[in-house]
Amino acid sequence: MSFLGGGRAADDPPEAEDAPAVPSRAPEVDWSPDEFAGPAYEDWLLGDPFRVAPRARSQDVPRYPRGRPMQGGFPGRRLLLTFDDGPFPETTPRLLEILEREQVHAVFFVVAGRVDETPLRRNGRRMAQQILAGGHSIGNHSYNHPHLVSLAEAGWKQQILRAHAAILSAIDYAPTLFRPPYGHFNGAIDRYLTYRGYTRVHWTYVADEFRGRTPEVMTRGILEQIRERERAGHDVGGILLLHDTHLRSVECAGVLIRRLKAENCTLLDAGDDDIWRFVEPGEFFQPEGQGGEESTTASSVPAAPAALEDARRWCEDHAAELDDIRKLDDIQVNINEDGFGSAGGYGPPDEGDAPP
Hints:
single chain; 356 residues; alpha/beta; TIM Barrel; six-stranded parallel β-sheet; two-stranded parallel ribbon
């Protein structure tokens, strides 16, 4: 029998047809804009397996209630690093090594079919558990990455709920952040995500992994996107989108982190305390009903003293490497109308290397 309900299975006993139908539960609750309430909260209290569950006592994982969609720019040089479409046992372990070395946390929007409870997915489930153990967050990216808007209502609801159940089963923690595949959604999907207690998360910067054939070119493309926003007078902080399904994207994360740390050395020498830093989702998260729209002028958000001290220490420890790290800027890239950065002399992807 499908866990989402539906018609009688072929092997159900005949008397099952005569069983009284169980009414669906959709509590009538007035949602306060500043509280975690409504059906999502009711489901959590009542232990619905498809909804937010209290985290295991051994886990220290933030649970974000329903909030405003996270997208666009954010004040200050703050970046949230996110990875889509994993976990991949071939590449995700390398990414976790890089993030641990650089002391950066990220959000992994997993395709839940990769962590479902089947013998073929045991490695994926273990990787999801390692992601959580590394202090990272896990979000819902659907069950098998379809265009949700191309599905009937029952189809896209199943994608959200089935993915939710698979993630909860794999890590004993229910996600409350959702990224729609390809970034495509509509009003009905958005309302349903809100009803289920999810916050929709998009992105500000994205690596062009399908034309940028090296981590260096991909990194330069991201840096140029940041410069474009800066020149336009917009907030430069924001959400970075990469994929842990491509080795070049995984290595791009390491190159980008080191390049921005090198930029911090220049900012610190100039007396600027609004340095680049990679932050937790909580620094961007705004409960629904709070906060305003993206500002139209770049604004400064000074880093905490501890972050400044860490940045100065990094500059001292890597003084001999700074010039080599900055040579990355010698690669010339152009930003196309879709916001991707590309460089001359780098061909298209190999045949069959299509976007996930």
